[in-house]
Amino acid sequence: MNFSLQKTALNDAHRPTIFPTADDAADAVADHLLATVKRDPKSVLGLATGQTPRRVYKRLVDAFLEGEVSFRDVETFNLDEYCGLAASHTDSFAAFMQRELFGLADFDPDSLNLIDGAAADLTAEAARYAALLRDSGGIDVQLLGLGANGHIGFNEPGSAHDSHVRIVDLSDETLSANQPSLTELRSVPSQAITLGIADILNAREIIMLATGPAKAAAVRRSLREKPSTDCPASLLRSHTNIHWYLDSAAAAELG
Ligand code: GLP
């Protein structure tokens, strides 16, 4: 493919689908994921946490409860986890996924790959998770949310394009942005283990869901400015099978 054609293809891959409301955008993402699992019941899904994907997961659960789909053969990978939190801790991302999705449908617990934030040796845990991901044959569809500072997973500004699973320090902006979602902890853990940008880009398909005015600047920087480690989500522009789902509020600065 010559550069100009490839450039066009890249632009097509990065033309966002914009919906009137956050619910409409989330419903479209849920439909995308349901179509994936119906097409390949053994799909490997990379899953994000946070407030944005909650409606997506509710729609997946509803589809299961209505007998529309089964997740029993699906394999999943969580995107990230706070250091120091075991899956039993209510503020862990593992517990979030159990509450919002895994515990409400027919996922096989043996097929749910989770980072152990409470591992005695977190460096070894990051290496274990990286090996799991590598040996799995990779992620078919990676669902992402967008941090207000452009982070993906917990790849904060400055994260290298070729980064892999590792322990990271969370930015002050992320610590304050994630504070409201805590229920037991008094403050957000200062470190996390996250898939790296290279791991995310290795996914065969990426779905980015960003909604609300707080994400508008990060969306503009990701889709309109020169790709830079200053805005990790902008590095997704090197992926040629990515779908951006936005509501009108998150798309407000795209012009
Ligand atoms: C957290 C997560 C990200 C998530 C982001 C946005 O930092 N590590 O995976 O996308 O915050 O979360 P929310 O959807 O709640 O805005």
Q: Which small-molecule ligands are present, each listed once? A: 2-amino-2-deoxy-6-O-phosphono-alpha-D-glucopyranose
> What CATH architecture label applies?
3-Layer(aba) Sandwich
Question: What fraction strand?
Answer: 15-25%
Enumerate how many helices there are, as a single number. Answer: 8
- Range of helix content: 25-40%
Low-confidence stretches: 1-11
How far is the first residue's CA from the last residue's CA?
Answer: 30 Å
Strand neighbour order, sheet with most strands? 1-10-9-6-2-3-5
Rg, Cα atoms, Å: 17 Å
Class computed from helices, strands and strand pairing? alpha/beta
Kindly provide the name of the CATH class. Alpha Beta
Query: Could you name the CATH topology?
Result: Rossmann fold
Count of individual beta strands: 10
Oligomerization status of the protein chains: single chain
Question: How are the secondary structure elements laid out?
Answer:
Elements: H1 3-13, E1 17-19, H2 22-39, E2 44-47, H3 54-65, E3 75-78, E4 80-82, H4 93-100, E5 112-113, H5 122-135, E6 141-144, E7 166-169, H6 172-178, E8 191-194, H7 197-201, E9 205-210, H8 216-224, E10 242-247
Parallel strand pairs: 1-10, 2-3, 2-6, 3-5, 6-9, 9-10
Antiparallel strand pairs: 4-8, 7-8
Helix pairs in contact: 2-3
Bound molecules: 2-amino-2-deoxy-6-O-phosphono-alpha-D-glucopyranose (GLP).
